[in-house]
Amino acid sequence: MDENPIEKNIFTVSLPTSKSVLIRLLLIRFLYANEVIAIEENSSEDVKIVHSNLQIISKHTNSNEEITIHVKDCGAAYRFFLSLLTVTKGKWFLTGNERLLTRPIAPLIKSLQSIGANIVQTPNGIHIIGNELVASEIEIESEITSQWASSLLLIAKKIHLKKLTLIPPINSLIYITLTCDLLNLNGLNIHQKENLFFIKTAENTQSTFEITNREKDWSSAIFWYALAAIYNNYLFYFPHLSLQSLQGDKIIASWFQNFGIYSQEVGNGILTTYRLTTLNNFYEFDLANHPDLAMVLAVLAILLPCNLSLKNLKTLNYKESERLTILSNSLTHFAPTEATKDHQLIIYGKQRFTTFEQPIALDSHEDHRLAIAFSLLSCRYPISVKNKSCVKKSYPTFWNELAEFQNFTKNLT
Fold first, then answer.
1. Hey, what long-range contacts does 51-60 have (CB within 8 A, 24 or more apart)?
2. Is residue 6 part of a domain?
């Protein structure tokens, strides 16, 4: 089938482009092709932040004046630009919003300083003098975020890096693998052996822009997979989403078979179908490599309902908000919820509460993934979400898309 499937009970979802892929691609093309590639007008806020700052860097490279690079609340930009600016000639001041400046970055600074990078951290941001750097080997911690390792890998070819050592434990390895996959298509040959990454320059390369520019975001797709499980009389079609994606969060397609949702490649995208499934009394998912999926899965446990344990959530409180704490506190309004000392979140959805005396307003804490996950609760409960506009960070059209689905269901009844 070459075109999108058309049936009256199929809802076609316009997902955002994968920001994890596109941000990395923007940086790779800037570093190694000396260009700032164009983005779509409706790109996510994080992509726009990276794109606009690359334009500033391109314009002011070699300047004797200190140039401010403000990345607002974009953690990927904060970490990736730190390495990029150390190898880009000029004087730079890397800064962001208050919450961002409290998020961990010291191990990346330490690793870059160990190879001669001129970096001075202050409470208001980081002063950097960019210059040529050469290092055959570097080591970096990776327990808190994979982006420190990805940041170094992105400049690997610039600094002639031969080996990167990750100090265990390693979290979100799939995102480091994504960085490697994209770099391997753009002039490198990176081979992983346990916690070691060996880097060579590749002879034959191909551009990833056409391959990945239209690839949609699996991390955003989980909301619609959850809706598919709740409203299993509807099918969902996702143009430009693929089971062969480089994105690790494609594991959604496998996990949701537990809830009767199956995925198949149809035309240029994925179509979900439902098969009658008896829910288990208890489910357990390991989120060490998939922290962005935790919020929707936790809410889904209440709505299905089922009892659910989400393991290895240590990094959640280092995100845009203290996600684990907020999620645990917020979901106690709807079902017994427990956050354990070993960073598990257990939701006893089978014991969910069924009535409320008055509507509940849930605060997103300006966190896009919390806002999207909390909106699911409106399928059953009288809730509202505060600070809804924060979804622009990853999914600018989310609320419009959700309204379209609500209209779609009304028209079919």
1. 51/26, 53/77, 53/81, 54/26, 54/27, 54/30, 57/30, 57/84, 57/85, 57/88, 57/90, 57/92, 58/30, 60/90
2. no
Position 201 confidence tier, pLDDT thresholds 50, 70, 90: confident
Instruction: State pLDDT tens for residues 55-98.
Output: 999 999 999 999 999 999 999 999 999 999 999 999 999 999 99
Residue 11 in any domain: the answer is no
> What CATH number has the domain bearing residue 184?
3.65.10.10
Dihedral angle at the C-alpha atoms of 59, 63, 66, 67, nearest 10 degrees? 0
- Co-location of 174 and 311 in the same domain: no
Q: Of 190, 212, 234, which residue sits at a domain end?
A: 212
Contact 154, 178 (CB under 8 A): no
d(CA 187, CA 204): 7
- What are 242-277's pLDDT values in tens digits? 999 999 999 999 999 999 999 999 999 999 999 999
Bridge-based pairing state of the strands 196-201 and 235-239: unpaired
Predicted local confidence at residue 1, as pLDDT: 41
Buried b (16+ CB within 10 A) or exposed e, 154-182: bbbbbbebeebebeeebbbbbbbbbbbbb
Contacts of 380 (CB under 8 A, 6+ apart): 302, 303
3-state secondary structure of 284: strand
Regarding whether 258 and 193 lie in a shared domain, the answer is no
Alpha carbon distance 403, 236 (integer Å): 15
pLDDT given for residue 357 in this prediction: 73
Closest CA to 306 of 289, 327, 285, 322: 285
Please provide the DSSP assignment of 60-105 as one string.
HTT-SSEEEEE-TT-HHHHHHHHHHHHTSSEEEEEE--HHHHTS--
Strand-pair category, 269-274 with 261-266: antiparallel
**Residue-range definition of the domain harbouring residue 108:** 19-212
Indicate whether 201 and 223 sit together in one domain.
no
402 and 255 housed in the same domain: yes
pLDDT reading at 383 higher than 90: yes
Q: Are residues 259 and 378 in the same domain?
A: yes
69 is written with which tokens? 């690079």
Is residue 324 within 8 A of residue 347, CB to CB? The reply is no
